[in-house]
């Protein structure tokens, strides 16, 4: 019998002064049985960094044909494909064929090695942004997550400030590759 995902509910007060986007988000995140809290934290941060109409979580780890997040246009086209982790170049090449923009949020102790091995191949792809989330910062963000949570998330000058009312942390995504 397959294990079921663990459901997390998040009320997020988002204040993204970099994009002049302020919103109250009610999010449901399904944590796959094989997923770590750190990976789920990275998915949540990626969502908040790109929060806009049409952005949604996908089946993620449960599906080989979908990213972790994507944004569709009103006509159903994939506008933005967002991967969390260390995807391989063929997967990102496929994403470039399906979406107008592709973003990758890599994290973990081996993300530097992943980037060294894949940077040349990924660098040749069009419309791909790659961001690295520092492992200690992602661990601190994961430590703030609870099954039911209220979070204040501010983005100022590219730095994410996260607070759950009792603890806080900051995450500063490092741009490894920018397509613009």
Describe the structure.
There is one protein chain. The strands form 2 sheets. Strands 3-4-5-6-7-11 form a 6-stranded mixed β-sheet, sandwiched between helices. A 5-stranded mixed β-sheet has the order 2-1-8-9-10. It has a domain at 36-144 and 162-177: Restriction endonuclease-like alpha-beta roll fold, CATH 3.10.640.10. 30% of the residues are buried. 25% of the residues lie in helices and 41% in strands. By secondary structure, the protein is of the alpha/beta class. It has 4 helices and 11 strands; from the N terminus they run ββαβββαβαβαββββ.
Please write the string of helix (H) and strand (E) elements.
EEHEEEHEHEHEEEE
Do you know the CATH architecture of the domain at 36-144 and 162-177? Roll
Low-confidence stretches: none
CATH topology of the domain at 36-144 and 162-177: Restriction endonuclease-like alpha-beta roll fold
Helix proportion range? 25-40%
| CATH class descriptor of the domain at 36-144 and 162-177 | Alpha Beta
In round numbers, the mean pLDDT is: 94
- The count of helical stretches stands at 4
**What strand line-up does the widest sheet have?**
3-4-5-6-7-11
Report the C-alpha radius of gyration, rounded: 16 Å
CATH-defined superfamily of the domain at 36-144 and 162-177: Restriction endonuclease-like alpha-beta roll domain
What distance lies between the first and last C-alpha atoms, to the nearest angstrom?
A: 46 Å
**What profile does the largest beta sheet have?**
6 strands, mixed
* Form type: globular
Task: Supply the helix-strand structural class.
Answer: alpha/beta
Strand residues, percent: 35-45%
What is the number of strand segments?
A: 11
